[in-house]
Amino acid sequence: MPGILPFAIGSFDTIGPLSRADFPHRHTFHEIVYVTGGTGHHVVDLTRLPLLPPQLCVISPGQVHYWERASGLRGWVILFTDDFLLAHPEDRQLLRRLGERPWLRLDGAEAARLRALVREMRDEFDQRDEGFISVLQAHLHVLLTRAVRLPGGRRAAAETELEAGRASVVAREFAQLIARPGGAELSVSACAGQLGVTVGYLAEAVKQSTGRTPGRLIRAARTLEAKRLLASTELTVRQVARHAGFADPAYFCRFFRRETGVSPGEFRRGSQGIHHVHRSESIDPSDLSA
């Protein structure tokens, strides 16, 4: 929806009830949770981990998670779509690395630095002064870079229930494959061949882990690459089409409009400041209260 920023930040209270949902659910956007207080457990996919604040957790799109017997939950929730990463596309790799790790524990100094950074992000988001989009993108990049440096949280054997199986591994490898340069140009069958599985198994594994089909994720990856080129280069639409793997510029324009609701030219004109985002990929904190 035009005008809705693909980013939101707030406390567990201000973001809405779903931020502390005690039933399994998943999102189409990224979620970073910084817990500063509370007891209970957080379950991500099939791994159950105790709350030992201060802690940081990155939840990837499609991951199933929920809070189990959580009490006194305090902290911050940061939500954003892939479109918000157009200024720092390398952050997608940082997010993948963080999404594969369990809860990250912070010591006193790390917690203080992170708390100050998150508060700056909240102030920028609330005040929305000139250039606040770029400031938020820069702060998010700093947050992810610092988070990758943190030592991985240790899981107590008694707290770890079921480990993700082969299907989750295949789904993760598929996501990494299509995120590589040129990866989104591969067909589903080509991806299955490179991963050493059948097309049927790949479809089942990806659907189980993300709630979406491999074809849908490939289209999303191609769309994101086209958005990045339109927003950050001066390539013509024909050149963007070629770089995004489309031999026919007319087909590319039809594809882009179908996926985003706007033409490549309209997206480029709207990508100054706040990038135009299709309604289904936008984040409105009030949506999380439903």
Q: What would you say this structure looks like, in words?
A:
This protein has 290 residues and is α+β, with helices and mostly antiparallel strands. It is 45% helix and 16% strand. Residues 153-164, 273-282 and 284-290 have low confidence and may be disordered. It comes from Streptomyces celluloflavus. This is AraC family transcriptional regulator. InterPro entries: AraC-bd (IPR003313), Homeodomain-like_sf (IPR009057), HTH-like (IPR037923), HTH_AraC (IPR018060), RmlC-like_jellyroll (IPR014710), Tscrpt_reg_AraC-type_HTH (IPR020449). Pfam families: AraC_binding, HTH_18.
Low-confidence stretches: 153-164, 273-282, 284-290
What separation lies between the terminal Cα atoms? 18 Å
How many strands, which pairing sense, and closed or not: the largest β-sheet?
Answer: 6 strands, antiparallel
Mean pLDDT: 83
Number of distinct helices: 11
Radius of gyration, taken over Cα atoms and rounded to an integer in Å: 19 Å
> Roughly how much helix do the residues carry, as a percent range?
40-55%
User: Rough shape?
Assistant: globular
Question: In terms of structural class, how would the helical and strand content be classed?
Answer: alpha+beta
Strand content: 15-25%
List SSEs in N-to-C order.
EHEEEEHEHHHHHHHHH
| Secondary structure tally: strands | 6
Region (Disordered): 267-290
Keywords: DNA-binding, Transcription, Transcription regulation
Protein name: AraC family transcriptional regulator
InterPro entries: AraC-bd, Homeodomain-like_sf, HTH-like, HTH_AraC, RmlC-like_jellyroll, Tscrpt_reg_AraC-type_HTH
